[in-house]
C-alpha cells in the first residue's frame, strides 16, 4: 500500500469512575486516535488505531503528548518516505528510532487495519483464530475502603466476569485480598497486580499472599528487575507474572530463560504492536509459559483487536477484556458487549473498530492534525 495521509485525533473520554493503581488515579482517558488513508492497487482504504500511552509517563516512559510528537516529527515522515508498505514492514522502517513502542504500535496497527480491510479479512482470520469468544476478566482499581472494594467485586461477579484482578500496593494488599476470599470463597479465579510497587525486600509481605490461592501476582517488582523477579519466584509459591518487564519478544525470551516468570501479560501496545504480541505468544507457548491479554483502558477501537488476539491457543487465562461499560458510559465506538462472561471475537474486516464521527467530535480535545508526505 501507499500512504496518502495520516490524521491524529485527540479526545478526552471520561471514565465511569476513578481508576486507581499503585502509580496514580485516572478519571479521564486522554486518547490519541490515528486515521490512516492509503491506496491499495489504486483503491482508497482507511485504517484506524488507538495509541495506549497514558497522559503521564508513570506506567512506562511513554506518554500521549510524546507519542503524538514523535509520530508527527519522526515516525510518520519515515513511513511516507518508505513508499510501498505493509504491516509486516512497518517495524523495520521505524527501527532507527529507538524505543517509542506505543507510538510505533499505533502506526503498525493502523497500517494493518487498512491492509486487512483491503483484503476483506478479519484480524481473527489473519491469526487463524477459531474461537468465537474469549473469557472476560476485570481489573479492580484501588478503592478507598475494603467495603467499597467488596461492593465493586460483587457487582462485577453479578455482571458475569469470570476472573477478578485486584490492584495492590504496599499497605493495600493482604487486607483486600483476604476480604475478597472471605466473602466470595476460594473458587473465584483471583489475581493481583502490583504495577512494580514492591522491591525484593518486601518478599515477606508478598509471601503472605501465598495463602490465598491466587492465579498469579503481576509485576511485583521494577520493570528492569528480571534477576530479582527470578529470585522472588523461588521464594514464593504464587506464580509470578510479568507485565511492564516484557517490552518485546527478546525481553520475554530473557525472562523465561532466567526463570523470572511462569506467566506473561501481553499488552500489544507495550511491546510495539500486535505482530510482536503474536511472536511473544508463540515463544511463550513453545516454552510452556501461560499468557493472557492485558488492557490499557482501551476504547472500543482497541478492545476488539485485543479480543481477536486473545483467541490464539496460548491465551489460556482470562484477560482484561471487558465490555465498554466497564470504563466508559459513552464509548467512541458502538458498545463492546460482554455476555455470559465472554466477549465475542470480531469477524468483520480489519483489526480495529471505527469510531463514530459524532462521538469523536463530542470528546475532541484538539483540532485533528493532518500529516502528509513532505509536511
Describe the structure.
The chain is α/β, with parallel strands linked by helices and 375 residues long. It folds into two domains: 133 residues, Enolase-like, N-terminal domain (Enolase-like, domain 1, 2-Layer Sandwich), CATH 3.30.390.10; 221 residues, Alpha-Beta Barrel (TIM Barrel). Helices cover 36% and strands 22% of the residues. It is built from 13 helices and 14 strands. The strands form three sheets. A seven-stranded parallel beta sheet has the order 5-6-7-8-9-10-11. A four-stranded antiparallel beta sheet has the order 3-2-1-14. Strands 4-13-12 form a three-stranded antiparallel beta sheet, covered by helices on one side. α7 links the parallel β7 and β8. α1 crosses α3, α2 packs antiparallel against α3 and α5 crosses α6. The longest helix has 19 residues. It is globular. It starts with a strand and ends with a strand. The mean pLDDT is 96.
Quick overview of this protein structure:
Helices cover 36% and strands 22% of the residues.
Topology:
Blueprint: E1 2-21, E2 24-40, E3 43-51, H1 64-82, H2 87-94, H3 101-119, H4 123-127, E4 133-135, E5 137-140, H5 146-159, E6 163-167, H6 174-184, E7 190-193, H7 203-207, E8 217-218, H8 226-235, E9 240-242, H9 249-258, E10 263-266, H10 268-271, H11 274-286, E11 290-293, H12 300-309, E12 338-339, E13 342-344, H13 357-362, E14 369-371
Helix pairs in contact: 1-3, 2-3, 5-6, 9-11
Cα(first) to Cα(last) distance is 20 Å
Give the beta-strand count.
14
CATH superfamily of the largest domain: Enolase-like C-terminal domain
Order of helices and strands: EEEHHHHEEHEHEHEHEHEHHEHEEHE
The gross shape turns out to be globular
Question: Total helix count?
Answer: 13
Give the domain tally.
2
Based on CA atoms alone, the radius of gyration comes out at: 20 Å
Give the neighbour order of strands across the main sheet.
Answer: 5-6-7-8-9-10-11
- What's the overall average pLDDT, rounded? 96
Query: Could you give a short account of the major beta sheet?
Result: 7 strands, parallel
* Unreliable residue stretches: none
Amino acid at each position: 500500500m501507499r500512504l496518502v495521509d495520516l490524521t491524529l485525533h485527540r479526545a478526552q473520554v471520561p471514565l465511569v469512575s476513578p481508576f486507581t493503581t499503585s502509580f496514580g488515579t485516572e478519571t479521564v482517558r486522554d486518547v490519541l486516535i490515528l486515521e490512516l488513508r492509503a491506496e491499495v492497487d489504486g483503491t482508497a482504504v482507511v485504517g484506524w488505531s488507538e495509541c495506549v500511552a497514558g497522559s503521564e509517563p508513570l506506567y512506562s516512559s511513554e506518554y500521549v503528548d510524546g507519542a503524538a510528537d514523535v509520530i508527527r516529527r519522526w515516525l510518520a515522515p519515515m513511513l511516507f518516505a518508505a513508499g510501498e508498505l505493509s504491516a509486516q514492514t512497518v517495524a523495520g522502517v521505524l527501527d532507527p528510532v529507538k524505543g517509542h513502542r506505543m507510538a510505533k504500535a499505533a502506526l503498525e496497527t493502523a497500517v494493518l487495519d487498512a491492509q486487512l480491510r483491503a483484503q476483506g479479512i478479519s484480524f481473527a482470520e489473519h491469526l487463524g483464530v477459531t474461537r468465537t469468544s474469549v473469557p472476560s476478566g476485570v481489573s479492580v482499581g484501588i478503592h478507598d475502603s475494603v467495603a467499597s472494594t467488596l461492593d465493586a467485586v460483587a457487582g462485577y461477579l453479578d455482571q458475569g466476569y469470570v476472573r477478578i484482578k485486584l490492584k495492590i500496593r504496599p499497605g493495600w494488599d493482604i487486607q483486600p485480598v483476604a476480604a475478597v476470599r472471605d466473602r466470595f470463597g476460594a473458587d473465584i479465579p483471583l489475581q493481583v497486580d502490583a504495577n512494580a510497587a514492591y522491591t525484593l525486600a518486601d518478599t515477606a509481605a508478598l509471601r503472605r499472599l501465598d495463602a490465598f490461592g491466587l492465579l498469579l501476582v503481576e509485576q511485583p517488582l521494577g520493570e528492569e528487575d528480571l534477576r530479582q523477579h527470578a529470585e522472588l519466584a523461588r521464594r514464593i509459591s504464587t506464580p509470578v507474572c510479568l507485565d511492564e518487564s516484557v517490552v518485546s519478544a527478546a525481553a520475554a525470551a530473557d525472562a523465561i530463560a532466567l526463570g523470572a516468570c511462569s506467566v506473561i501479560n501481553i499488552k500489544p501496545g507495550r511491546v510495539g504492536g500486535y505482530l510482536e504480541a503474536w511472536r511473544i505468544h508463540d515463544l511463550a507457548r513453545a516454552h510452556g509459559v501461560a499468557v493472557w491479554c492485558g488492557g490499557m483502558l482501551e476504547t472500543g477501537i482497541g478492545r476488539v483487536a485485543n479480543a481477536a488476539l486473545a483467541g490464539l491457543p496460548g491465551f489460556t487465562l482470562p484477560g482484561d477484556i471487558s465490555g465498554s461499560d466497564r470504563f466508559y458510559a459513552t464509548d467512541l465506538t458502538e458498545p463492546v458487549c460482554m455476555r455470559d462472561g465472554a466477549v465475542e471475537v470480531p469477524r468483520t474486516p480489519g483489526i480495529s473498530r471505527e469510531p463514530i464521527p459524532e462521538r469523536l467530535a463530542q470528546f475532541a480535545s484538539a483540532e485533528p492534525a493532518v500529516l502528509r508526505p513532505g509536511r
